[in-house]
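User: Teach me something about this protein's shape.
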Amino acid sequence: MPDVILIAPPIREFYLTKKRTIPYGLACIAKELEQAGFSCAIIDALARDKSKVIEYPKGFDHLVPHYGKTDITLFSLFHHYRHFGYSFEHIANLVRQEKPFLVGISALFTPYWNQALDTARAVKRFWPNAFIVLGGHHATQFPKNCLENDDIDFVIQGEGETPMVQLAQLLKGHPPGSLPEADDLRQINGIGFRLGNGIVLNPPAWADSPHGLDQNALDKIDWHFYRRNKKAAITIVASRGCPFFCSYCAVSASSNYANFRMRPVNDVLDEIKLQARSKQIGFIDFEDENLTLKKAWVLELLHGIRQIFKGEDIELRAMNGLFPPSLDIEILTAMKASGFKTLNLSVGSFSATQLKRFKRPDIRDAHDRVLEIAKELDMDCVSYLIGAAPGQTAETTLNDLLALAARRTIAGLSIYYPAPGSADYTLCEKQQLLPNDFTLMRSTAFPVPDRTSRLEAVTLLRLARILNFLKFCVDPNGVLPEALSADEVLDIENSCHGKMDRYKASILLIRMFLTDGIPRGMDHEGGIYHHPHSIDLCRKFIQGLVLVPAGV
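Assistant: First, the predicted structure itself:
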């Protein structure tokens, strides 16, 4: 039976990208605990394929008109709200069976904080003999809020490897419900705890030189769940933090996160070698904020990866985004040779004014240069945009989408959400733009209706999906599907289509959209309906659309 159990709790959301939920951070903590002599296990509540449709939570009523109906098209948004992962009771029962003295629960993202809390409550109810500590970004930003709940005994602010070990050493042998001396707890950086009627918060803990995983830690991850094309899909974190000052980011130099730190190349390669020995790897996602900032470092890393996977078919990605000015022909050629097939490029906006507002370097020329090199190397591209941020107009984001329409890339539009710890979160707080509940602080809820209304935000998101669909269904010369006459549109809307193939339905509705600018959906029975939308944005989109296919 393990001394310590670490839990990645379930989440409730409209969608889940499972290859991005690997509990890498918990495995890093497990490594340190085991090296200190504590047996440890990880319960990854998200490592299951089933999800349960549940009711929209309180405060989500504004989403029903946009997500409430089924839409089978290939450019649809979301529909069902779901519980992803094990039930809270199942998790708690697993803990009770193992009888640990300490349970750590990750609370990484503020909108999912309630699921972390419900996990803690269930564990405390099923196994009250364990101390419960909460860590992760939410616990770092809102430690007092977390400790107001009696089911949480401690929080860890910052990075958890060192404080979790020190806390386990202090708690080992303590009877449940009796805390160590406050003076002893005060010696552990990162720890927060209740004392009498107050709360004590020690300074956050940050690792000077973070390292990766060993074999014991890797074995605690359920790799059978994290697969892509019948091969293992793994995550690597080669650096932490970011040296830039982007206002929207919670780990930038303008936030209260730690400094930018890069692991030694050999340390990263050793971790990849370990994984390659025990499993057939088909996909590696580098979850770094800036993988390619230091040229010599990344070239050495890529060379090492080529040596590990000689002759094997492997794909590399950096899904958090790459900084275009850091990418030149030498780096991109090495990336291609190492397994990068798609470049995820961080743009933000093509508006100089908006880039300045984001406190982001002007990457526009560098972005276009990378697109040209990517074309020569036959690499695909995704260009990341942010829309509906505080002070950002819908017109700005529309122009950004039209800029990407005319480039050899697809649009990765994210609707802004206030990330606690970022400069923009503080701005939203001062301007009273924050939603009234943590649950609403997610892109899918359109949380900040400032200069971009919610109707405009959802329209822009639909236009981004429509744009990407168009980029894959046009001919190599960029000729759009043929629009229909108004009479044809009317006849189609008044007809019963029955069940249709998704692609055929999508083409039909695209042709209707190009005729009158109305985004439509189709249900499973073939019924066509109008999505709520800004007709002004839709018509301007069609008028300004000059299309370059994504991979030509």
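Now, about its shape. The chain has 20 helices and 21 strands. The CA atoms of residues 117 and 312 lie 43 Å apart. If you'd like, I can walk through any region in more detail.
User: That's plenty for now, thanks!
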